[in-house]
Amino acid sequence: MKLQTLSREEIIRKYLNLEKENEKLKKEKEALEKELRKYKNPNTPPSANQHLKPAFSKAVEVKSHKRGAPFDHPGTNRAKKETLNEHHIFGKECPNCESKDFRVIGQKVQQQEEIPPEIQPEAVNITRDICRCNKCHLKFLARDNQTPLQGRFGINLMVLVIFLKFIVRGVLRKTASFLEASFALKLAPASVQAIIERAAQAGEKEYEILKQKIRSARLLYIDETSFSVLGKNWWVWVFRSDTDMLLVIRHSRGNNVLEEILGKGYAGIVICDCWRAYDFLINAILQRCEAVVKYIDFHIESWFTCIKIASVQPTNNYAEQAIRETVLVRKIIGAFRSVEGTKTYETLASLIATWRLQRLDIKKELTRILSENLC
Description:
Blueprint: H1 8-36, E1 130-132, E2 139-141, H2 155-167, H3 172-183, H4 189-202, H5 204-215, E3 219-229, E4 232-240, E5 245-250, H6 255-262, E6 269-272, E7 285-288, H7 305-308, H8 317-333, E8 335-336, H9 339-357, H10 362-374
Parallel strand pairs: 3-6, 3-8, 6-7
Antiparallel strand pairs: 1-2, 3-4, 4-5
Helix pairs in contact: 2-4, 2-10, 3-4, 4-9, 5-9
C-alpha cells in the first residue's frame, strides 16, 4: 500500500504501530545479547561452550599429528642421583608355588628416594656465656647467630611451622597433628601459634621496609576483600608493585587506609576498581577496572590510562591474583580470632608473597630473618 493513497490519520496510525514494533524488537535484542554474554565473554573459555558455533565459519586446516608429548619433551621421570647407598633384594621363594628351587636369571636396577621411618627432633642443652665488656661495661649474652636467645624451639623447626601454616595453609590444630605424626613432636595448637607470632615479630622490621618500598613505587595494583575479625567485618588490602607485595588488614574500607599506606601526596600510577575510596588519590594517575557496565560513567578519564602509558595494564588482574591466596585462607579458617592475629598474618603473608614474587628461596629468606632477629 502506497503512502499517497493513505489519509493523514492512517499514516500516523501506521507510524505508531511501527514504533511499537521497533521498541519490541529492541527489547528482544537486548534480552538475547544479555543471555549471550553468559556464554561469550572474556572470562569464559571457548572450551566451556562447545555447543556454540564459532563466530566465523571459515574452515581451518588442522594438521594431523601423533598424540602424546612432543619428540623433545623432557619427560617427568626424576634424574638418578649419585649415591653409595645400596640395597640388594634376594629371591627367597616362588610366589606361585612357594618353591625354594629357583635360579637367578638376571637383575633389575631401580632407584628410590626415601625418608627415615621415624624423624624425631633433637633436644640440645644450650649454655651461653654471660659477658661484661671491660670498656663500656655492657653486660650481654653470647650469640652464635643460629640459636634463638629465647624459647624452646630452634630455627629449622620454626621454618617448618611457617611452611605448614602459610605454604600448605594448615590450621593450627592440623599443623600440631602433623608435627606429632611425622616428627613425634607433641605441640599444643597454642604453641604453634606462639611460634608463628615470634616469627612475625622477627619480620616486623622487614615488613616496615616493605611498606616504604610500596609507598615509593611508581606503579601499584590495589585491591581489597572482606575478612571477619572477632565476628566483625574487616578488610584485607593488597598493594602490589612489580617486585613487592604488601597486605594490610584494617577495620575500614575507606580512604584512610590509602592515606596511611601511601600518604596524601602519592603521585604514582594506580590500577584499581571503581570503589569511591580511590578518589582520594587526587595526585595519582588511575586506571579503573570494573566489569559492571553501570560504572562506565564514573570517572571516564580513568578508563584509558593504559592507552596513554605503555606500562599500565588495562585490568587489575595482578592485584586480584595477589589477594586470591587470602581469599582461600578466609575459606579455610573462617575468621581471625584476635586483632593480634591480623598483624601476624599480614606481616608473614606479605614477606612470603614478596619473596615468591621476586623468585627467592622462601626457606632461605625465613631462616635469614629468624637468625638475624632472634639469635
